[in-house]
Amino acid sequence: MSSLAAGQGAAGLMDAIYRRQRHIYDASRKFYLLGRDRLIDELAPPEGGCVLEIGCGTGRNLIRIARRYPGRACFGVDVSSVMLETARRSVGRAGLSDRIALAQADATDFDPQALFGRAGFDRIVISYALSMIPPWQGVVEEALRRLAPGGELHIVDFGDQRELPRPFSAVLNRWLALFHVTPRRDMAAVLVTSAAGADVTLQARSLYRGYAALAVLRRQR
Prior knowledge:
By secondary structure, this protein is α/β, with parallel strands linked by helices. The chain has one domain (3-219): Vaccinia Virus protein VP39 (Rossmann fold, 3-Layer(aba) Sandwich), CATH 3.40.50.150. It has 9 helices and 7 strands; from the N terminus they run H-H-H-E-H-E-H-E-H-E-H-E-H-H-E-E. It has a 7-stranded mixed β-sheet with strand order 3-2-1-4-5-7-6, with helices on both faces. Strand 1, helix 4 and strand 2 (73-78) form a beta-alpha-beta unit. Helix 7 packs parallel to helix 9 (187-198). Keywords: Methyltransferase, Transferase.
């Protein structure tokens, strides 16, 4: 399957899942998409720098990033047109349309120069998107290619659940599967390999007994 066809298929699936959910997404997800605000607090983009979120959804994170770090340009891509519609409305209501630019794109293969007029970004964020994208390793590789010198890729997602009670973990995974979400239990190992291949450093942490995982990959200057 071509990347274009794959992207169109992913867009249709995401639109179907979120056509109605997007209206309650932010209100409901705050209870279980843990670690997002910790990621934002640790992002620290340089003065005058730029931030890209891959899989930006409703724009919730980008709005928080823009408010937390004035003077930084923010960009977001998502494969779902309906989520981007919600994001544009949210960004407009927040009065941040001049700071946040959004575009529809396949996370595994996109051209930031064509979309935003930029070849690279000082910070790239992927928040609870890898668990929804089957070729998720390709998303990580694409993000690393788009980092500017000295840039950082910040990832937060569901963790390996190693220390969670088994009954809780079983119920959680059955519930997540209803939304086509699959925790990437091997994410830490894959990121080690990706970091070595891309000549970046990696810092990874497990949060909340393995419920979530937080990782930062830094490109050398």
